[in-house]
Every structure is written in structure tokens, then in C-alpha cells.
Amino acid sequence: MKAEFWLERWQRNEIGFHQGEINAHLQDYWDRVGLKEGGEVFVPLCGKSDDMLWLRAQGHRVLGVELSPLAVEAFFVENELKPEIRSVGAYERWSCDGVSILCGDFFDLEAADLKGVAGVYDRASLVALPPEMRGQYAHHLQRVLPAAAPMLLVTMDYPQPEMNGPPFAVAEEEVRHLYAGRYTVDRLYDRDILAEAPRFRNGGVTRLEEVVYSLHPRR
Predict the structure, then answer these.
(1) Which uninterrupted H or E stretch holds 119?
(2) d(CA 102, CA 81)
(3) 149: which of 19, 110, 141, 176 is 20 to 30 A away, CA to CA?
(4) Residue environment code for 102-122, b if the CB has 16+ CB neighbours within 10 A, otherwise e
């Protein structure tokens, strides 16, 4: 899945993955991450998510990274924010009122870009990637993150042969394979949401679980 796929989705406004409301799991489980007020939260593949505003309202600085300039611009325009825009390394950095978004490719991130990050919120990144890219994504994320940064991770799991992603199915076994070398992985919540997901149900999917994990660096 190449960058052009996501750029074209934003150009055609095919953004069913965008949530118009603050994610309920973020609100319910963010305190399990254990970040102090003021700590910077990294939101990979952030789109124009309003979850970033919620994190800012909890007293955190927020840093997102997003490939699509349309998504970045939409975040600031729709929230009536007037950003400062400047070039920083491989990125165009848009910033306003404690929220910054690096516009560019996630895989261009360097450790210096994330040096102030205290924690990570991933709702739409891991599930957005096909299996052949998830290992690369997780490896790169862990390479550039500060060693002490914990994570709140939201995934979906369903029989992958029953429907093509995105969002893709990510089983607990894979989460542990990708992250257990660095983190303790705790499963905080799971629920079958098939009854609330007509696209999956009408597509023939027989089970659709939403799963929430907290990941804390091993001591």
C-alpha cells in the first residue's frame, strides 16, 4: 500500500476511517497510560482527528504526523485554528495552541523529531496498514521513539479473509509479536461491535472485535 493510496483517499474525500467524535476508548483508558500533565503525546497517521484536541484539553502538548496536506489543512481550518507553518527537516510543521502536525511521510521520522515525546496514542495507524507493512511500521516507531514512552493502542480483529482492509485485522498475537520485545502488553478491553458496523456485517464478516491495549516499556 503506497503513499498515493492515502493521498487519493483524501483527495476523493473517501475518509470513512475519520471519526467525527472523540474516541470513547481514549477517554476511558487514557489514564492507564500514566502520562503527567504537560507531557507531549505523539499521534501517528493522525489525519484530522479531533482526538488531538481532547488530548490537548487534558493538558498535553500534541504532535501528529500526517501524509496528506489536505488532512492537515482541514484539521486547522475546521477547528478555526491559525497555525504557524515552517519547514523542519523532511516536514512542513503546522503548529497552533499546543498542537503540531508534521506534514509528510511517517517513515521519514528521525529520533530528533520525537525527542520531546512522552507517550503515544495509536487508534488508526496499525490497523491502517497491511500485514507486510505493519512490521516495518512498528520497528520504525520503536526506533525513533524515546525509550520511556508508553502507548495506548486501539485495534480491530476479525477474520481477515472475510473482508479486505483497511481497516485491517490485527490479532493480539501480532500485537505481542510486534511490541513485546520492548513493552509489557496489557489487554484492557475488548468487545464485539459487529452489530454497530453495517459495512462489515453486510460484507459478510462474522466477528468484529475492537480491542484496547496499554503498552509500557519494560524496566
Answers:
(1) strand 117-122
(2) 16
(3) 19
(4) bbbebeebeeebbeebbbbbb
> How many domains would you assign to the chain?
1
How many CB atoms neighbour CB 74 within 10 A? 18
pLDDT digits (tens, 9 = 90+) for 146-193: 999 999 999 999 999 999 888 999 999 999 999 999 999 999 999 999
Tell me whether residue 214 is exposed, middle or buried, using C-beta atoms within 10 angstroms of its C-beta: 0 to 12, 13 to 18, 19 or more.
buried
Gap between the terminal Cα atoms of the chain: 35
DSSP string, 35-81: PPTT-EEEEET-TT-THHHHHHHTT-EEEEEES-HHHHHHHHHHTT-
Structural domain containing residue 70: 3-15+22-217
Span 63-105, pLDDT tens digits = 999 999 999 999 999 999 999 999 999 999 999 999 999 999 9
Note the pTM of the prediction, 2 decimals. 0.93
Q: Please confirm whether the linkage preceding 167 is cis (ω < 30° from 0).
A: yes
DSSP designation for 32: G
